[in-house]
Design a protein that fits this description.
The protein has two domains: 197 residues, Alpha/Beta hydrolase fold, catalytic domain (Rossmann fold), CATH 3.40.50.1820; 57 residues, no CATH class. Helix content is 42%, strand content 18%. By secondary structure, it is an alpha/beta fold. It is globular, with a radius of gyration of 18 Å. The two termini are 28 Å apart.
Length: 279
Amino acid sequence: MKLHPDSDAGTVPFGEAQIAFHDTGAPGDGRTPIVLVHGTGGSTETHFRTVFPMLAARHRVIGLDLTVSPGTDLDALVAQVVAVIEARAAKQPVHLVGYSLGAVVTAALAGRRQDLVETLTLIAGWITTDKQQRVRNSVWQALFEQGGRPLQEFETFAAYSAQFLRSRADQDLENLIAGRTSRAGVDIEMAINRSVDITSDVERITAPTLVIGATADQMVPIVHSYMLFGGIEDARLAEVDAGHAITSERPAQVFMLIDDFVKEPAAVPAGNTIQPLTV
């Protein structure tokens, strides 16, 4: 699927695999790109479908689709993002944006490869998997092995805020549940989620950072955003009234926050909370 009229799709080799990307940059485009990294079971299309074209109206945007296979771990996911940056951004620092597991990956990358990150935006991310997340992970695993409607309903329930679900018409909600799918390898990514601990990486992040937390998030409760905010020296925090599916529930707010931040990272000084936006 073409995410924007100016985007070109292609792949970057990574060992025996290929990492798919969408890039709105033309030859000789000197703009610092915004690199989008999706979350568990998703892709650039599913997790940034609306945010991508809004950002592309003002910036060069590169979205990549992580690839997993048995044995893939967090280090391999970080290496994939590095490979795309080096191939598509001429090894220059980028505006790195990660969502959910993508936020874990990009935070780890920012701590390990400070030379590749001009700014960092972490959406619904976390540092260390806690007991609440492991319980949800276990319920998901049992439903995944069973398959079918119960898994779709659970994922819908966990992903969206109660307010969002209540606001849907019956048929809209049914379509949301029935259309719930994940790409191959989601179980591998869920196994990675279960044992995340990037404490040492987060301590080494030097890039100006925007942490975006969702106030009604049941998958990654907003306390994890507070921990990222407190653990990164040059960080500011924005809270958005949404569930974990924040890029679907509040895409305009996510766009505005990223757009404002990458244009002027120091506009909100480190240690401050960005005032809630009304959209």
